[in-house]
TrEMBL record, chain A:
<comment type="similarity">
    <text>Belongs to the class-II pyridoxal-phosphate-dependent aminotransferase family.</text>
</comment>
<comment type="function">
    <text>Component of the serine palmitoyltransferase multisubunit enzyme (SPT) that catalyzes the initial and rate-limiting step in sphingolipid biosynthesis by condensing L-serine and activated acyl-CoA (most commonly palmitoyl-CoA) to form long-chain bases. The SPT complex is also composed of SPTLC2 or SPTLC3 and SPTSSA or SPTSSB. Within this complex, the heterodimer with SPTLC2 or SPTLC3 forms the catalytic core. The composition of the serine palmitoyltransferase (SPT) complex determines the substrate preference.</text>
</comment>
<protein>
    <recommendedName>
        <fullName>Serine palmitoyltransferase 1</fullName>
        <ecNumber>2.3.1.50</ecNumber>
    </recommendedName>
</protein>
<dbReference type="GO" id="GO:0030170">
    <property type="term" value="F:pyridoxal phosphate binding"/>
</dbReference>
<keyword id="KW-0663">Pyridoxal phosphate</keyword>
<dbReference type="GO" id="GO:0005783">
    <property type="term" value="C:endoplasmic reticulum"/>
</dbReference>
<dbReference type="GO" id="GO:0016020">
    <property type="term" value="C:membrane"/>
</dbReference>
<dbReference type="InterPro" id="IPR050087">
    <property type="entry name" value="AON_synthase_class-II"/>
</dbReference>
<keyword id="KW-1133">Transmembrane helix</keyword>
Automatic annotation (TrEMBL), chain B:
<comment type="function">
    <text>Plays an essential role in the homeostatic regulation of sphingolipid de novo biosynthesis by modulating the activity of the serine palmitoyltransferase (SPT) in response to ceramide levels. When complexed to SPT, the binding of ceramides to its N-terminus stabilizes a conformation that block SPT substrate entry, hence preventing SPT catalytic activity. Through this mechanism, maintains ceramide levels at sufficient concentrations for the production of complex sphingolipids, but which prevents the accumulation of ceramides to levels that trigger apoptosis.</text>
</comment>
<protein>
    <submittedName>
        <fullName>Uncharacterized protein</fullName>
    </submittedName>
</protein>
<comment type="subunit">
    <text>Ceramide-sensitive subunit of the serine palmitoyltransferase (SPT) complex, which is also composed of SPTLC1, SPTLC2/3 and SPTSSA/B.</text>
</comment>
<feature type="transmembrane region" description="Helical">
    <location>
        <begin position="23"/>
        <end position="42"/>
    </location>
</feature>
<keyword id="KW-1133">Transmembrane helix</keyword>
<keyword id="KW-0472">Membrane</keyword>
<comment type="similarity">
    <text>Belongs to the ORM family.</text>
</comment>
<dbReference type="GO" id="GO:0005789">
    <property type="term" value="C:endoplasmic reticulum membrane"/>
</dbReference>
<keyword id="KW-0812">Transmembrane</keyword>
Length: 468, 155
């Protein structure tokens, strides 16, 4: 032991060892005098470049310039009729599929809810914002759909926009329909995943993309193991009114080992014998779809949305769904109203039948009106309550004007329409369509009168076009 | 942020600053010393082998915990930006030459120097210790940041 303390041993160091030790000691020295270093350093700008940037900078005006407002003023709750700018019109603009927006039972439930709970929930679900109304509604939705669990969101848009980034992360792959609505686009963007857009409702194209992906994976199976792949589609596409080909997607799901998320915002309470949505309509087992999300702002006339699926999948959102964790929960009276509406859907299947009959009837009539007009094309399936009249020959500068004037003249003849106008950030933004929403409230006469007004206007347009 | 962590803090990924938390360096030194004393308690081993084994075990544990495990155990809101990074790479938000990095890198080297000294610079021990040194020092170098040699631990 004495040798250690007299450092006698140092005299026996072989020279290679000494070299290594010296190098190591130099390493420590180097380490301690190195400065912290960020990986991506910003490039240093020369004074000239700085000046150039400063010169180029144009301040935004304090008050942005607002275009002349095209807003129309609606005066009361929409039924089949609506008062727009003091004209009484047939309402083809509101998402009021089951005509529940003016339903006394729903409104009554909401009023009672306000008396019971007040108007707000005062916090997110995790922080004092959970009320019995939320729990009941979640249970009722889950029971209605026949899934384990449902989770409520306080705003329709944030439902799918939060659900997607809860599961898809950096390095994951999303296969999304090109014409998906803006909420899906924003969710996909927020997820930071790689996005493959497939052509609208084109299963061949989706298959091509999946095949290409499978080829990549065969080359690198270790990477494939840690990559999640998700197909995202809308039950009824809001931008076209087309029904998704869910059966093929489910086939792909098992063939290519991908997951399927379905946005049923426009098909929940619309499709299927009892209104359960696309899965019921196409006879697909609802458990084959990994996650179903829907807004409760369409067929159910409330605010908010929900996701439904297996408990294992849905529960993940209770900590990872940002819209669920970090925004105040749905006002409980709205949850009450939604519960009541859901009960009405279950108890009055005739509403669904009427909606379906109306949608089919209207589609047929519109098709006749649009045929050979060379002005508009009708898109969407006949059973879908959302129809789009798409400009046949879009002309970039004139689109919006043409559509606005069409809507204006329709309104003066008692038909309230809306354009399929979108935000600039929306990748489907073309602003070339008029959206028509069918409701169960309409009678066949009302639908026919709408079509006769529209066909009159279309004829006028096509005559003026051919005159040019 | 993430509810599972238990305390409120503004850090998106607790893995980034755990190595700067109060008392973590001294705890680390104590753990290494404890490891050494436990190995010293094994009767058949000579003091030299105890030092070499301490060094090897330390390197292997370092490698497994800091350089092979990836991602975080926490629910983070960073959309998985740390999914493909090891614990060492996440340290201090990927910044290089920070205090913590300097400390842990030099700790490995000091342990090697000590082990060499106490094994009296014998050739057999030298081989084992140097291999262990490389295992724990190479992946810590800034030059190996986000580098996966021969695709080891790439995904």
């Amino acid at each position: 032991m004495e040798r250690f303390f007299t450092l006698e041993v140092l005299k026996t160091i072989p020279y290679y060892h000494l070299c290594i030790e010296l190098v190591l000691i130099y390493c420590i020295y180097w380490l301690y005098f190195s400065r912290p270093l960020r990986n991506q350093r910003r490039p240093e700008l020369t004074p000239a470049e700085k000046q150039k940037l400063i010169d180029e900078w144009q301040p935004d005006p304090l008050v942005p310039v607002v275009e002349e407002s095209r807003d129309r003023i609606v005066e009361h709750l929409p039924g089949s009729k609506i008062i727009v700018d003091r004209d009484e019109c047939l309402d083809f603009g509101t998402f009021n599929f089951l005509a529940l927006r003016k339903d006394d039972a729903v409104i009554g439930a909401g009023m009672k809810g306000i008396r019971d709970y007040g108007v707000g929930s005062c916090g997110p679900r995790g922080f004092y914002g959970t009320f019995d109304a939320h729990i009941y509604l979640e249970e009722e939705i889950a029971n209605f759909l026949g899934v384990d669990e449902a989770i409520l969101y306080s705003y329709g848009f944030s439902t799918i926009a939060s659900a997607i980034p809860a599961y898809a992360k950096r390095g994951d792959l999303l296969f999304i329909d090109e014409q998906s609505n803006f909420a899906i686009q924003q969710g996909a963007k927020a997820s930071r995943s790689k996005i493959h857009w497939y052509r609208h409702n084109d299963m061949e194209h989706l298959k091509e993309l999946l095949d290409a992906q499978a080829e990549c994976e065969a080359k690198n199976p270790r990477k494939a193991k840690v990559t999640r792949k998700i197909i995202i589609a809308e039950g009824i596409c809001q931008n076209t009114g087309t029904i998704a080909q869910l059966k093929t997607m489910i086939d792909f799901k098992y063939k290519y080992k991908v997951r399927v998320f379905l946005d049923e915002s426009n098909s929940f309470g619309v499709l299927g014998e009892t209104g359960k949505g696309l899965t019921e309509h196409l006879n697909v087992d609802i458990l084959d779809v990994d996650l179903i999300s829907a807004e409760t702002e369409r067929a159910i006339p409330s605010i908010g949305g929900f996701c439904a699926g297996s408990a294992y999948v849905v529960d993940h959102q209770r900590l990872a769904g940002l819209g669920y964790c970090f925004s105040a929960s749905l006002p409980p009276y709205l949850a009450r109203a939604a519960s009541t509406a859901l009960k009405i859907i279950q108890n009055e299947p005739t509403r669904l039948c009427r909606l379906r009959a109306n949608a089919k009837f209207f589609h047929k009539q519109l098709q006749i009106a649009v045929e050979h007009s060379h002005v508009f094309d009708l898109t969407g399936d006949d059973i879908s309550p959302i129809k789009h009249l798409l400009l046949t020959h879009p002309n970039n500068n004139e689109n919006l004007k043409a559509i606005q004037s069409f809507i204006q003249s329709a309104q003066s003849q008692g038909i309230a329409l809306v354009s399929g106008e979108k935000l600039e950030q929306d990748r489907t933004c073309k602003n070339t369509s008029i959206r028509l929403t069918v409701s169960a409230a309409f009678s066949e006469d009302e639908l026919s009168s709408c079509v006769s007004v529209l066909s009159g206007l279309i004829k006028k347009l096509s005559v003026s076009k051919s005159a040019i | 942020m993430a509810g599972v962590v238990g305390t409120a803090h503004s850090c998106a990924n607790p893995n980034t600053n755990v190595w700067n938390s109060r008392g973590i360096w001294i705890s680390y030194i104590i753990v290494v010393l404890l490891l050494h004393f436990i190995i010293l308690c094994i009767p058949v081993l000579t003091v030299e082998w105890c030092w070499t084994i301490t060094n090897i075990v330390h390197s292997i544990l370092m490698y497994l915990l800091m350089h092979s495990v990836k991602g975080t155990p926490f629910h983070t809101t960073d959309q998985g930006s740390s999914r493909f990074l090891t614990g060492w790479e996440q340290m201090d938000g990927e910044e290089q030459f920070t205090e913590a990095r300097k400390f842990f890198l030099s700790a490995s080297i000091v342990l090697y120097l000590l082990a060499s000294f106490y094994t009296k610079y014998e050739y057999e021990h030298f081989q084992w210790n140097t291999a262990a040194l490389l295992l724990s020092v190479l992946p810590k170098l800034p030059q190996f940041h986000r580098v996966r040699v021969f695709g080891i631990n790439e995904y």
